[in-house]
Amino acid sequence: MSAVVTAPASAGTGQAPRGAPRRRRWTRFVLPAYSWLIIAYLVFPIAVMILYSFNKVTTGLPQVSFAWNGFTTQWYQQWKDIPQLTSSFWLSIRLALAATIVATALGTLLALALVRYRPPQLRGKGFLEQVMFLNIAAPEIVMGASLLGLFVTINVARGFLTLLLAHVAFSIAYVAITVRARMAGFDRSLEEAAQDLGANAWVTFRKITLPLIMPGVMAGALMAFALSIDDFVTSNFVSGAAVPFPVWVYGATRIGIPPQVFVFGSAIFAVGILCALASIVVARRQT
Amino acid sequence: MTDTDASAQDVPAAGPAGPADPPTVPAIGLDGVAKEFHSRGETVTAVRGIDLAIRTGEFFSMLGPSGCGKTTTMRMIAGFEEPTRGTVRLDGRDVTAAPPNKRDVNMVFQSYALFPHMSVFENVAFGLRRKSVPRDQITRQVGEMLEIVDLTGREQRRPRELSGGQQQRVALARALVNHPKALLLDEPLGALDLKLRQAMQVELKRIQREVGITFVYVTHDQNEALTMSDRIAVMNDGVIEQLGPPRDIYEHPATRFVAGFIGTSNLLAGSLARVTGGQGVIEVSPDERIIVRAGRSELTVGQEVELTVRPEKIELAAGPGPAGGCALRGTVTEVVYLGTSTSFSVHTTTGADVVVFQQNSASADTPVGRGDEVWLTWDPQHSYPIG
To answer: If both were cysteines, with which of A52, A84, B101, B248 could B244 make a disulfide (CB 3.0 to 4.6 Å apart)?
Structure first.
């Protein structure tokens, strides 16, 4: 809302309004105000979560209640008092890291192929792109159900591996699209120059191509991590014995959420913000 | 291909491009090289079969309009395109199938292709690092090369912090530091403004003399080619139309295309009325005549010939001149003052429009104006039959 408060300063200095056009100047606050409202709308639930992670619990069971009982850092000190929650959290972290590494590598290669090659070398390029967008557009519930069906049919025990396969499957397309966008203006003569100066294909990729598309790769990786860490729908279908954080939290809602969930949630949010900021800084320096 | 090089005196005779006893191996040899591109079932022939022998240490230009195949030819020498037919040799070694990183030639790209994420120093050092040259030698060689191209003190800059001319010189240094057998330059001055381009032409020529490396230069700018080259190959539609030193190319254009592409040329045509002593005469009227000397083929009476005359070889005169010279009558249709010279357009009695350049020297004070009747005279040695 600060825009509304500060902006009139420039208009209010000086003489009386001259002419009709100046009377419409209030309209210039409409879009800024609207933008701040949207941001408030988006941030509000997160703010509530962070606030209530500092809330005292007065009832017998340590459960989240939405009456404000006073400030405490108790839950941050006792963050690992619920072993199942802690283990599900670490499972989610391991899963997200593994899925990010695999999906980023595969997605980057897919993006390279789609940018580099046309039908004679890459048959079915159009089809490949369609499948990629379908992968993004398809409802998660469909993907989760079909993956479950597949795993049951081929008799694969559900656990970390099936979770990883599922998470990689829904992240690849996002990585590929992000990296491909970065490659749009890529000057191929840079690679030719490297080859001309004696670099083989691998050295050219490592010294020239990869550093130049790195901001895109990092953005893709960040997206894959974010998609994986909070995925519930698909994970719920394919998790089996290994229960990731969102699935555990969903299960806990039926009996009452322990305040530690808000602690983990706040931590994930903080790390996410830091990663996004770091990515912006890196991207600014690279270009 | 027409090799008018036989009369060249400013280039040491390294033997003709033919198969007969080559005393020295050319730095770059192309043997029947052709390139076809296929796209959507269509075949586009970019290069139709080129034989070429580029000598060690020469400044060789490939000149032609866009789409004539000059860049494709250069890319085949560098290894970025594989010829559909023919062989590419570097110092006699067949490299037709070798990838670019296995060829001892370096290229300066039209866009410079400087690595934007590396400093000037790292850009120039890139090739040496690939050859595992020791660190202290890299530092020394890069330093020397940056001195040659006048960029000492800018080692740690990023390419985007440099001006166009400086980027151009980094690209040059990055290629030359590897001491390649030949340096390939693909329209390297195209992105620079006129003044900088002229300065860089002189600079390039100086650097080439200093390092003594064979330069192969692709351009569509005839002035660039004429200024810098030892020899020029004029290309059109995938073939070499003419190959020779700049003077030969300019003074003796072998084909209608070369005559039209390089400089301004006047095209005249007619049938021969008389042939005496290797000279053919086209009689236009009793006192108007065009005399042609026999070129590569014999002249016969009644033969239709086409010839070119450069505008600066023709004089505006009051009368037809001596009987042994060429003379045409015409009406001045346009006078354009060009500073050091004046350009006259003359509509001749043959029906052809002829352009004449005259120096604006101190003595030239005969004002010829539009609509004036004039005589055009020139020495028969300046009439070049083409065909």
So the answer is: B248
Alpha carbon distances (Å) from B167 to B188, B192, B228:
11, 11, 21
The answer to whether the CB atoms of B113 and A192 lie below 8 A apart is: yes
Chain B contact set for A286 (CB, 8 A):
117
Q: Which of B80, B111, B117 sits opposite A212 (nearest CB)?
A: B117
* Contact criterion met (CB < 8 Å) for B115 and A195: no
Q: Which residue has the tokens 């210039």?
A: A28
Question: Does residue A85 lie within any of the structural domains?
Answer: yes
How close does chain A come to B371, measured CA to CA in Å? 55
User: What Rg do the C-alpha atoms of chain A give, in angstroms?
Assistant: 25
Is residue A138 domain-shared with residue A270, that is, in the same domain?
yes
A184 and A272 co-located in one domain: yes
Confidence of residue A33 (pLDDT cuts 50, 70, 90): very high
For A67-98, write each residue's pLDDT tens digit. 788 888 888 888 888 888 889 999 999 999 99
Q: How far apart, in whole angstroms, are the C-alpha atoms of residue B133 and residue A193?
A: 19
**Is A170 a domain residue?**
yes
Helix and strand numbers, DSSP H then E, in chain B: 8, 21
Q: Is the ipTM of this complex over 0.85?
A: no
Interatomic CA distance for residues A196 and B163, integer angstroms? 24
Q: How many angstroms away from the CA of A197 is the closest CA of chain B?
A: 5
Which residues of chain A neighbour B37 with C-beta distances below 8 Å?
none
Closest residue, chain B, to A214 (C-alpha): B117
Tell me the average pLDDT across B111-135.
94
For B238-278, write each residue's pLDDT tens digit: 999 999 999 999 988 888 899 888 888 888 888 888 888 77
Q: B18 and chain A: CB distance < 8 Å anywhere?
A: no
